[in-house]
Amino acid sequence: MAGFPPNFVWGVAASAFQIEGATTEGGRLPSVWDTFGRRPGAIADGGTGDVACDHVHRWREDVALIADLGVDAYRLSVSWPRVIGAAGVPNPAGLDFYDRLLDELGERGITPVVNLFHWDLPQWLQDEGGWLRRDTAHRFADYAAVVAARLGDRVGTWAAINEMFEHFVLGHVVGEHAPGLRLPLAESGAVAHHLLLAHGSAVAALRAAGPAPIMAINSYAPARPLSDAAADVAAAAFYDTVQNRLFTDPLLLGRYPDEALPLVQPVIRDGDMAVIANPVDLWGVNYYTVNGVRAVAGDIPLEVAPPAGYPVTAFDWAIVPEGLTEVLLTLRDRYGDRLPPLVVSENGCAVDDVVDAGGQCADPDRVAFLAAHLDAVRAALDAGVDVRGFYVWSLLDNFEWAAGYTKRFGLVHVDYDTQRRTPKSSFGWLREQIRLNRTAPAGGPAR
Ligand code: GBH
């Protein structure tokens, strides 16, 4: 696995709501996920984020794990409702938590990559209209400025919003994620536009606050028609537009794809597109799978399912490493000079991991998954694509959104009864890959 460029960044990622717990401590206000998670049937196992991985109390142990893993960088997210109180007043106790966390990371030589929004909107902002409301984008920029002023001196790289597409579609159209809305497609465009506007406004605030580079983070997946039928081919093309271009075209080209314009046209104001296209320094790619798409009748005119012929993960997502190479090359080909250097900002898989009687947790399927996806990154590097780093999702098993605690993505197993952390075999494997890569530079014999 050696053969990556010498300055290639090895990282591991997590997000606030999925690991923190302590949802009522230190002045932390409810988020849309606290509310949504209490809807009967919303979460597969009825799990909540109340405790999660108890990271707010165990952060020191978790940073020690990250240091032990040997990664260069840790991608975390700040919980908006933890650091901003009602009416937008900063909450010092919440900021203190991240302050200590960043100090500890710094002392361990781990670069913090700090994302500001991983889907946990303060509930009070949702009550005022959430992402349907333009003002939420301005509130987000205010929040970014508060965090930058307090933590910016120790942040290695900023990110504003994780996966606008998932938050938009799953949270506001399909209703499977918080806030659980099922907006008619025709009314949903405001959410997409305001997320983009929030991103661009936050980029401006972060730039004004300091020199740290800024990364955009989106998910990408090739969309493949599930049959040769013309309707399925058209549905896959539409899905490709919505997932892979609806957010990326405005961010990089300053305009929406033509097919998506009717959705957003009513809410666009003069000057918005320039704000949205505020340049960033790095382009984060979250990659998990390829999506099979077929046409169906209904307001949402398509359905996504794993394409046949591939092995699947414990989540039933198709395992298609070459899809990652395809995504990286497609971005380069679509956006050319407009595309900043790429980073694989999330990759990983769900496995039904168990700790055996001897206290070991072997996850060979995850090792194979990660090895194949790292090969796919190297194929893109060999094809001349500028990829600067790779972040495994995730450090710990954690709250997997609508799947609750039923899906495990961690390099470290978490026993949710005892909060005991057990590094899986993939943890030791990744540590060894990082070490090998550092001692055998690109083009060297170990390749
Ligand atoms: C990421 O989203 C999130 O950023 C992270 O919080 C989350 O924990 C992690 O992934 C794991 O889920 O095969 O048809 O069922 C990933 C977005 C959307 C990617 C669903 C895979 C599967 C489509 N995912 N998609 S299908």
Task: Specify the CATH architecture.
Answer: Alpha-Beta Barrel
Structural class: alpha/beta
What is the fold named in CATH at topology level?
TIM Barrel
Percent helix: 40-55%
Number of strands: 13
What are the low-pLDDT stretches, counting only 5+ consecutive residues below 50?
Answer: none
User: What's the oligomerization state?
Assistant: single chain
Give me the side-by-side strand order of the main sheet. 1-2-3-4-5-7-10-11
Radius of gyration: 21 Å
State the end-to-end CA separation: 7 Å
Catalytic activity: Hydrolysis of terminal, non-reducing beta-D-glucosyl residues with release of beta-D-glucose
Keywords: Carbohydrate metabolism, Cellulose degradation, Glycosidase, Hydrolase, Polysaccharide degradation
Protein name: Beta-glucosidase
Pfam families: Glyco_hydro_1 (PF00232)
Keywords:
globular; alpha/beta; 3-stranded mixed beta sheet; binds ligand GBH; GH_1_N_CS; 8-stranded parallel beta barrel; 16 helices; 447 residues; TIM Barrel; carbohydrate metabolism
Describe the protein in words.
By secondary structure, this protein is α/β, with parallel strands linked by helices. It has helices spanning 16-19, 32-36, 55-69, 80-83, 92-107, 123-127, 135-151, 164-172, 185-209, 230-245, 248-253, 261-264, 272-276, 321-335, 364-382, 425-439; strands at residues 9-13, 73-77, 111-117, 157-162, 214-219, 223-225, 282-286, 291-295, 302-305, 342-347, 387-393, 412-415, 420-423. The protein has one domain (9-436): Alpha-Beta Barrel (TIM Barrel), CATH 3.20.20.80. It has an eight-stranded parallel barrel, surrounded by four helices. It has a three-stranded mixed β-sheet with strand order 6-8-9, covered by helices on one side. Strands 12-13 form a two-stranded antiparallel ribbon. α7 runs parallel beside α9. The protein is globular and about 55 Å long. The protein binds ligand GBH. Keywords: Carbohydrate metabolism, Cellulose degradation, Glycosidase, Hydrolase, Polysaccharide degradation. The active site is at residues 163, 346. One of its GO terms (cellular component) is cytosol.
